[in-house]
UniProtKB/TrEMBL annotation, chains A, B:
Pfam family, one: Creatinase_N
SUPFAM superfamilies reported in the protein's UniProt record: Creatinase/aminopeptidase, Creatinase/prolidase N-terminal domain
Protein name (record): Xaa-Pro peptidase family protein
Domain of life: Archaea
Keyword set includes Metal-binding: yes
GO molecular function terms noted in the UniProt entry: hydrolase activity; metal ion binding
Residue span(s) of domain Peptidase M24: 157-374
Native organism: Haladaptatus pallidirubidus
Residue stretches making up the Creatinase N-terminal domain: 6-99
InterPro entries hit by this protein: Creatin/AminoP/Spt16_N (IPR029149), Creatinase/aminopeptidase-like (IPR036005), Creatinase_N (IPR000587), Pept_M24 (IPR000994), Peptidase_M24B (IPR050659), Peptidase_M24B_aminopep-P_CS (IPR001131)
Keyword annotations: Hydrolase, Metal-binding
Similarity remark: Belongs to the peptidase M24B family.
Keyword Lyase: no
Amino acid sequence: MAKNLSALDSALDSMGVDGFLIDAASSDPDQLYLSGFDAPDAFTTLYANGVHLLVSSLEYGRAKKESDAETVTRTSEYDYYEKIAEYGPEGAENRILVEFLSDRGVESVAVPTRFPVGIADGLRDAGVSVTPEETAVITEIRATKTDEEIEHVRVAQKANEVSMRAAEDLLSAATVENGILHHDGEVLISERVKEEIEVTLLRHGAALDETIVACGSDAADPHNRGSGPLKANEAIIVDIFPRDKASKYHADMTRTFVKGEPSDKIRARYNLTHEAFDAALEAVEPGVTGEEVHDAVCDVYENAGYETLRSDPNTETGFIHSTGHGIGLDVHEYPKVSPAGGELKPGHVITIEPGLYDPEVGGVRIEDLVVVTEDGYENLTDYPIELVVG
Amino acid sequence: MAKNLSALDSALDSMGVDGFLIDAASSDPDQLYLSGFDAPDAFTTLYANGVHLLVSSLEYGRAKKESDAETVTRTSEYDYYEKIAEYGPEGAENRILVEFLSDRGVESVAVPTRFPVGIADGLRDAGVSVTPEETAVITEIRATKTDEEIEHVRVAQKANEVSMRAAEDLLSAATVENGILHHDGEVLISERVKEEIEVTLLRHGAALDETIVACGSDAADPHNRGSGPLKANEAIIVDIFPRDKASKYHADMTRTFVKGEPSDKIRARYNLTHEAFDAALEAVEPGVTGEEVHDAVCDVYENAGYETLRSDPNTETGFIHSTGHGIGLDVHEYPKVSPAGGELKPGHVITIEPGLYDPEVGGVRIEDLVVVTEDGYENLTDYPIELVVG
């Protein structure tokens, strides 16, 4: 199953332009998706009767071999060095781009809104029409994954499961002194658990920029990454969202652990969150909207007397975020599983991650990663949902 | 010693504009430098009578606490949600930015050439003049480091030394069977050494996106990251350029190792490269140009009969890259230590990394990291320069 770019064709038709142009490094997921080329520095991708790359000489050989492009052109084919001598590096690159477009009969392009203004000005000065797109078409296309992309996410989630296990094992091996977790004769801090997670991911071909290991009141703020000593009898949220280093696709999973004895309040909130989690999964199937899945979670919480952003948009406790999000080349991408979430379709890969937060009690969250299928969903996550660690 | 932004003031004066505007995440080193704020999503920094941030509500508290800004404004202060309802998210953000600039009396801005065209168009439509800068002023300012920045690089290089030691220890512990390195009963491959480097860096607060462990003919291509089995009696280039996770500053070091007995050719090239390395360091002092340091390396190689890009711009063997580069928030930044390199100044942090390459022989390279001082340089690297591992 190859990439389906028909929505891009339609968008270009309705905008009345000849092509779509990206100038970015592959750290931009739309660039990586359209070009199929992983490169650290910015390069140019033109979509007009197929995908065409314009790259430096340095990247030419690799782009020919590795990219999804029908043609690859190197800047040196356009007298790059002569042009640099005459116009400077930036002037040279703009002139080359104008010639590259002209050679393909392209007189007007749509571009992402974050396309560089310096290049856009250069093209416009040369008579090429440049129109920032109204909606991010490639970002929308990326929401629906091919079987190969789903497999990439699955592989990343497998590494994630091993790293979650390493984190839980560390909590399990810890001892408790004066209510504080200890390991290897030292206080066990959040940073130490994160390091264990990251090292484990590396050993399994994955990496991460950030991870969450947050305890007690830290965990009551969903944006707090967590730091310092971990405490017994309090809820510890472990949320890991790594990227497979080879494929660049992400995974995502959250578990909440208590070392020791959870309070009745924590246990009740955990069990209710598990119920909300099940209700959300129950709702996932093609044709259902992200909003409906989110509503299933809100129903469970609100029926039990908790606030949600649906019942009170200003609440700072209760269920204070979305139910989930799409995931792929970006950690957060379409579709939304929130009040703004549209219709789910087969091939959408989404997280389901309800949670409850209160600085007085702490935070609990449970998150799995699933793919929407023709008749429901498949869970890409294989990790127990248990609160108390041994 | 604080950041010296006087060159930015001069540039804005000579462009006749009211301010400088960046819209980017902190992954853009100029944004991180000017704002002093580390955030994963794009935010706005205005330089006009000081540094002023415009951020989402989500980042407001942290930006107030952590950034270098004199004022921090959140988008919600400009009726963000009302504007979204009326104009959509992008229209709302453009209108807020126009009001934000107007409140500060800013009617014209210079922007980086990679500033987003969608935002530039919105500002221009509202009557704000937007001019892409001709030279990257903040990138130029960043070349000269404060004492605090030099300390960040020093800390990153310390972690790098430990990871280089881990790599060398792995080669040292390897056995040789049929000319191939083995470790723990398995063939020792490049990827395994890279993993050891990365894990060691993580244990010391640093991270990397890529590293080079390249053997034999792989190492003869300076852009080849290396893969597969490592061989005895061949030169193995280990080039590590990590980033300290806390400060975001980089380090850089290269060593070349042979497990077993190097050929006379490899040994001669290594010794000559060591000589070229010493000649380059000998040349480093304020007032000398990057080109002169590069010339010192070329002199040594050419006098010994090797080609350089100076003696033959098209050569594919010999010394086929620059002598070095500046390093800081970016792995490669100003100043250049190459034919295009201008005057070195105290506070410049540069690599010195001569090397010789030939597919028939392999590659050798030696690289240290130094800071230019008032009367010469200080080497920030403490690692032996020895070819043969035990």
